[in-house]
Amino acid sequence: MKAAQISRYSKILAAQINTVAVPSITPTQVLIKTKAAGVDPHLVLAITGKVKLFDHYDFPLTLGNELAGIVIEVGAGVIDFKVGDQVYTMPPLDKMGAFAEYVAVDAAIVAKMPANLSFKEAAAVPLSALTIVQALAILDTRQGGKLFIPGGTGGFGQIAVPYAKSQGLFVTVSGSGSARALAERLGADEFIDYTTQDYTDILTGYDYVIDTRGAGEFSKQIKILKPGGKLLSLNAGPNARFANQSADLATAKKILFSLLGAPFDGIAKWQKKSYDFLYVQPNGQQLAAFTQYLETTNIKPVIDSEYPFDQVNAAIAKIATGHSQGKVILKVDDAE
């Protein structure tokens, strides 16, 4: 089978399409014929080695964090899926593997696809869906609370914004001026054009921020929160609370994460606010619940662009710009 792989960390965002063996499955796994895969910013971090602090990959590494496809083989111990089921999943970030014609994953992290979505649309969902579900749980959001998502019109925002709205939150996003119409389409209550506006001059008294930009924006994002407000980052870095809640983390790494996060925790505490970090985890039950949400609301993800499998590097280059409006999709099976 074909798989898009890297053989080492590199500043050059380039994968090679290699021919590899179709994976065999364990009794708890299913084998999925991939139809489409989502392309996300984490890939840039993985290729360049910027997530080595979390994940030590085995090379060659098959890229890809989310996919939709058809079950073609079921492990002896799997009871929830059968051959022919249309499914989607997010493999563990430390394994990846979605950019391949066939993917073996544990059945516990798989869910049946929403009936209202195509394979390409379904492939746009898993990573963003699990991220927003887990983020809102950590933030312990309350109806009526005000949430700011900087850069909330990209691959994450196209799922996060409507879901956050469904949970009763007032949602503000930022983006370039050309993204205003998309923000309105997603249901955002307020849009900040970062090319002409500074959100710290406009936003105040917010309850929550979900950071997608990193440490460089921390001081600005913490500023707009009211006392007791909560900032959760997907990018800035881990802290003591994240380390202590990670049961399988080595003691040395817990100490390291605590030290790295000390500046964030210190500033947040001084301002009577809080800082958390999320490194999203695969979860089939959460994804199945999200399937019900999508089917009930008939919400469909926004697709920015689609690339054939042999143009995987163009797809990665597109996501690396940070300017996509919606999700970038890799068509693994051209028949889809």
TrEMBL record:
- This chain belongs to which protein, by name? Oxidoreductase
Q: Which residues cross the membrane?
A: none
Q: Which residues form a coiled coil?
A: none
CDD domains noted in UniProt: MDR_like_2 (cd05289)
Which Pfam families does the annotation name? ADH_N, ADH_zinc_N_2
Question: Which PANTHER family does the entry mention?
Answer: ALCOHOL DEHYDROGENASE RELATED, RETICULON-4-INTERACTING PROTEIN 1, MITOCHONDRIAL
The lineage's top-level taxon is Bacteria
List the taxonomic lineage: Bacteria, Bacillati, Bacillota, Bacilli, Bacillales
A single MF term (Gene Ontology):
oxidoreductase activity
UniProt domain Enoyl reductase (ER): residue ranges: 15-330
